[in-house]
Design goal:
By secondary structure, the protein is α/β, with parallel strands linked by helices. It has 6 helices and 7 strands. α4 links the parallel β2 (about 70-75) and β3 (about 95-100). The longest helix has 14 residues, at about 80-90.
């Protein structure tokens, strides 16, 4: 948290208005994903990690709870990727940081793909499909408009969906998606 507060003025990792709620709005929101993933998952890819949410939080928690889980944070903004690498070094957490466009990466073959505040669900499903291993699951943190995003995505995709209420925001949800196929 101290590193985020230090770097935030220079590279806008999170909205300045949300800094007072850093632990509930960002950290706890991200932390709830780890328990929703298959315990046998070995590879986790977080797309558009930005200030570390949820990927870096998952990696830090996994170091203790699931030491075999390998987390990759994908962030195209060089400054944010440098921040992520710095936090990993200072905390000693084992996490890979790929500074690249999600679309240009070789498929990551991840058991879990996550994203938060990155893109509409219709786009996220396509990005996840490319990087998920067969049988893998996507976990997307979504706000109050999640139902309309699901409806829009179903115009282009079919998928298995579990909508899980967020523990940190009553109007938000975690969309747990698998078996993705383009219509």
């Amino acid at each position: 948290a101290a590193l985020l507060a230090k770097w935030n003025p220079a590279i806008n990792l999170v909205s300045k208005a949300t800094l007072p709620q850093l632990w509930t709005r960002h950290m706890a929101d991200s932390a709830q994903l780890l328990d929703l993933a298959d315990p046998a998952a070995a590879r986790w890819a977080d797309l558009g990690t930005g200030g570390g949410f949820p990927g870096l939080v998952v990696a830090i928690l996994a170091a203790e709870k699931r030491p075999g889980l390998r987390v990759t944070c994908v962030e195209s903004d060089r400054r944010k990727a440098t921040f992520l690498q710095n936090v990993a070094r200072e905390t000693g957490v084992d996490v890979a940081v790929d500074c690249a466009r999600i679309e240009s990466l070789t498929p990551l073959n991840a058991d879990v793909v996550s994203a938060r505040a990155l893109a509409p669900l219709d786009q996220l499903v396509g990005l996840a499909q490319r990087h998920l291993a067969p049988g893998g699951t996507a976990l997307f943190l979504k706000g109050t408009g999640h139902a309309s995003e699901v409806e829009a995505a179903l115009a282009h995709w079919t998928f298995r969906l579990d909508t899980i209420p967020s523990r940190t925001d009553p109007g938000s949800a975690i969309l747990k998606i698998g078996s993705i196929t383009r219509v």
